[in-house]
From TrEMBL:
Protein name per its UniProtKB record: Type 11 methyltransferase
Organism of this sequence: Dolichospermum compactum NIES-806
Keyword DNA repair: no
Keyword annotations of the record: Methyltransferase, Transferase
Top-rank taxon: Bacteria
Example GO biological process: methylation
Pfam families xrefs: Methyltransf_25
Amino acid sequence: MCLAIKIWASDETQHNQQNLILSMFDIFPKLSYQALQSGKNYFAFTHKTVSSQIKNLIYPSLQPNISPLSPKLLTQLQDSMNQLLARDWEDSQAGVYPQNLLFDDSWEDFFRYYPLICLDLPNIWERIKNRRYQEFSQEIATDNYPSYYLQNFHYQTDGYLSELSANLYDLQVEILFGGSTDAMRRRILCPLKSQLTAFDHIPQEQLRVIDVACGTGRTLKLIRSALPDVSLFGIDLSSAYLRKANELLCQIPGELPQLVQGNVEELPYRDNYFHGTTCVFLFHELPAAVRQTVIEECFRVTKPGGVFIICDSIQENDLPEMELVIKNFPETFHEPYYKHYITDNLVERLEKAGFEQIETQVHFVSKYWIAHKPSY
Ligand SMILES: C[S@@+](CC[C@H](N)C(=O)[O-])C[C@H]1O[C@@H](n2cnc3c(N)ncnc32)[C@H](O)[C@@H]1O
């Protein structure tokens, strides 16, 4: 079509048309991104509405003790998601990460596992009805895990300990966050990249970044796109989630991130090893004392001059208008440590461990702590 316009147009019209085509290319990906995100958001909303209506029909006694969100609050939530997406788009245009990362959805997983999410709903409802929040399939060995970990977080079947759970997790979180999970994870990339410039004198291949509690590897994949040459590491307690992460990460070019099964309370790395340490969506699932231990471990393994970035849920008092959303969350999902988490002062905890110059940011329903290890 482009060629046809060139043949038939005069020089001036050709020039104008070329500009038009160029600016259409400029506009089109943005519109495509917005359309994709709206589609995911509507889909998630429809799934949540229909599934909760079916649940209310079958289990009328299971209605959670939550206050409904007012239309004003829903609009505020939508606005704040749109702001997140706008920042996401801007960072991709500024070259913090490639634009194609915004379209990196696993449609194969969606078509394979969405039906399983629906089929699993009755199991979840039974679990809620019978208040069985530490329920695992018989074949799953539950010894050797800390007791706080042996939970059906979000009522998930098998907690974090089965292949089924690993296959459904990303989609479940996408539904929860209306398709904006990766956009929230990507908010760590700009501070991570800019803080790593402190090590500009070192070749990129010699920089080491670890994502602790890496889960299914989504954050590592995003970091790989923004920092193609750095050496990446991931650690998680769940071997099923690590297998899923390996499946995802071995498809992308570049050195394969080194994945280790282990407890982030005792990181199996030497002191001062990593130039950057990240942790996404872990802290709200930890008891208070463990949060401190994990922060201290992350301090130990981060190099002097390095950066530690946490991304997790917003907390009480971050955004007064979101108070109800925060209050409803642990009523709707099994999140035993969330109520304490939302009041926990992580800045104090980070300072206690030795971090300094701690910056916090809030985007949509996530909060970020960007902490520096002093360079002595
Ligand atoms: C909510 S998921 C977040 C996963 C991933 N970071 C993400 O962005 O989706 C929490 C993850 O933390 C892991 N986890 C929880 N406690 C842990 C611990 N003490 N040591 C290692 N991993 C842990 C779980 O296995 C799970 O993969």
